[in-house]
């Protein structure tokens, strides 16, 4: 049996960050990762980074196969850097094996083909999430049916692509593959795009994505996939429509990786949705086990996983001031073209919560920067509390919104009045000066 101060299962964002920080405090740390092609985690290997390289290159006219090659180079570089950071750290031992709990304080791995048991007083689960496959009949195992991970391994651009699901992955891949030249159809069970987002904004998003040739089929499910030939499948929808495609992407959510972890040998309990149950300090129902990142459910973003590691670190070695409760506003972006970003409440949500609101609205075409960059697409909207003058939320669909949203988030966290953003001196001609106009509301 090998003894450590901490065992971290999963080389994801939270796992690698926590490993480094604990080692700096002279903890003896074991980091266990089952797949060497995943060193560094989901984000750099199969998710945020590779997809954003492809989004970027698609927008800059790079042919698909070249973009895939550049994406592979970027991923390899980042993976090597992530591996080196851990391998060079004397306080951390990296084990390449699947990990399985034996008890609350013991984890089983394979070391040089032999079973080995590691033990520690502190164990952290950071095993991430994987694609949730919908119940579709027929040839779902066909080599023309993909997840977000496998589609971006495909070297040849699919001429016709059907995407099942219109969430983050569905929309980002739709926009990205349409930019490379695929003819894309998106199938959604909802009756409109992104039902939790502002309706004016989603109408604009739909208009711009349709302008790229993307077709949306709402209020329907993919029921069956049938392989027709080496290059073609047919997708049958619940309304009986049939669509022929060269590739089908299943983008119907991601589920926490808890299978085969041996949690039945521990006091760790799961939520109704199958995520590891944690308290505000990310402690599980077993007092020496914590969970961070996608595996604990909730919002699935890299920066949430990073912030989870801050909460755990503060809880173990700090003054326990950080928790899920003290976490402030969380912005997010969908990297479609142009991108959509959001923080806080929409007007509808604010009204439902009883706020007395004022709204700001600004078409991007009215902004000088939009003319400079020759991109007039999009709409910005903000919501302000009339009584406190504080910003309640922003929905920004337009160029550079993934950067701009962080300015709004900071003003919200600081509880600044909306006039703080309205009356700033911004340089010119840039996107952020849109706030002079967007917040010019009474
Ligand atoms: C296509 C796509 C695009 C995305 N784009 C963005 C984006 O632009 N911005 C953003 O913020 N988020 C994005 N996300 C979400 C983001 O990737 C995740 O929220 C984040 O990577 C989760 O990190 P994590 O720390 O939970 O663990 P992960 O990085 O998922 O790491 C978990 C690791 O644990 C390993 N593991 C699992 N089980 C075991 C076991 N039993 N033993 C040992 N090791 C194990 C896995 O192999 C994996 O390496 C995207 C996701 C996808 C799928
Ligand atoms: N830019 C980013 O930050 C980014 C990008 C991609 C992914 N992600 C993360 O990855 C997570 C997973 O993304 P996702 O798009 O798979 O999930 P999602 O939860 O965003 O969307 C899933 C979609 O699939 C639909 N759906 C569910 N079951 C279906 C079925 N049987 N048939 C058809 N449609 C069905 C849902 O209605 C929903 O619209 C996101 O929640 C997000 O946190 C983030």
UniProtKB/TrEMBL annotation:
Cofactor (UniProt): FAD
Sorted alphabetically, which InterPro entries does this protein's record hold? FAD/NAD-bd_sf (IPR036188), FAD/NAD-binding_dom (IPR023753), FAD/NAD-linked_Rdtase_dimer_sf (IPR016156), Pyr_nuc-diS_OxRdtase (IPR001100), Pyr_nucl-diS_OxRdtase_dimer (IPR004099)
Which keywords accompany this UniProt record?
Answer: FAD, Flavoprotein
Q: Name the SUPFAM superfamilies on file.
A: FAD/NAD(P)-binding domain, FAD/NAD-linked reductases, dimerisation (C-terminal) domain
Report the residue ranges that make up the Pyridine nucleotide-disulphide oxidoreductase dimerisation domain in this protein: 330-437
Give the residues annotated as coiled coil: none
Task: Enumerate the spans annotated as FAD/NAD(P)-binding domain.
Answer: 5-303
Flavoprotein listed as a keyword? yes
Q: Name one Pfam family in it.
A: Pyr_redox_2
Q: Where is the signal peptide?
A: none
Please report which protein family the annotation says this sequence is part of.
Belongs to the class-I pyridine nucleotide-disulfide oxidoreductase family.
Protein name per Swiss-Prot or TrEMBL: FAD-containing oxidoreductase
Origin species: Planococcus shixiaomingii
The organism's taxonomy opens as:
Bacteria, Bacillati, Bacillota, Bacilli, Bacillales
């Amino acid at each position: 049996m090998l003894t450590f101060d901490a065992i971290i299962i999963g080389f994801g964002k939270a796992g690698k960050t926590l490993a480094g920080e604990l080692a700096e405090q002279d903890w003896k740390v074991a980091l266990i990762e089952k797949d060497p092609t995943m060193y560094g985690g989901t984000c750099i290997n199969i998710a945020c980074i590779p997809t954003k390289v492809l989004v970027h290159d698609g927008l800059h006219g790079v042919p698909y196969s070249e973009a895939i090659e550049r994406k592979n180079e970027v991923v390899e570089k980042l993976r090597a850097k992530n591996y080196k950071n851990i391998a060079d750290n004397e306080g951390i031992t990296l084990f390449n094996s699947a990990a399985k709990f034996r008890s609350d304080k013991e984890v089983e791995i394979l070391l040089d083909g032999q079973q080995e048991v590691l033990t520690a007083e502190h164990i952290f689960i950071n095993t991430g999430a994987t694609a949730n496959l919908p119940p579709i009949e027929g040839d779902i195992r066909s080599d023309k049916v993909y997840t977000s991970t496998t589609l971006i391994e495909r070297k040849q651009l699919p001429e016709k692509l059907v995407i099942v699901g219109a969430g983050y992955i569905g929309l980002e891949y739709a926009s990205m593959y349409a930019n490379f030249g695929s003819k894309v159809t998106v199938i959604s069970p909802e009756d409109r795009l992104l039902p939790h987002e502002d309706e004016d904004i989603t109408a604009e998003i739909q208009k711009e994505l349709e302008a790229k040739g993307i077709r949306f089929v709402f209020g329907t499910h993919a029921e069956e996939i049938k392989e027709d030939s080496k290059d073609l499948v047919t997708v049958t929808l619940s309304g009986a429509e049939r669509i022929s495609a060269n590739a089908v992407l299943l983008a119907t959510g991601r589920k926490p990786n808890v299978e085969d972890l041996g949690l039945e040998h521990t006091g760790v309990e799961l939520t109704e949705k199958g995520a590891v149950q944690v308290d505000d300090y990310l402690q599980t129902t077993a007092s020496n086990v914590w969970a961070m990142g996608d595996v604990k459910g909730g919002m699935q973003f890299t920066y949430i996983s990073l912030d989870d590691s801050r909460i755990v670190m503060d809880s173990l070695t700090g003054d326990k001031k950080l928790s899920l409760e003290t976490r402030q506003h969380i912005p997010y972006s969908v990297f479609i073209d142009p991108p959509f970003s959001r923080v806080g409440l929409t007007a509808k949500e604010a009204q439902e919560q009883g706020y007395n609101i004022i709204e700001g609205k600004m078409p991007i075409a009215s902004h000088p920067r939009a003319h400079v960059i020759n991109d007039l697409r999009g709409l910005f909207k903000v919501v302000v509390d009339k009584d406190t003058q504080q910003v309640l939320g922003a929905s920004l669909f337009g160029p550079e919104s993934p950067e701009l949203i962080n300015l709004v988030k900071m003003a919200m966290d600081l509880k600044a009045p909306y006039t703080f953003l309205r009356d700033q001196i911004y340089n010119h001609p840039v996107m952020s000066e849109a706030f002079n106009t967007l917040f010019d509301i009474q």
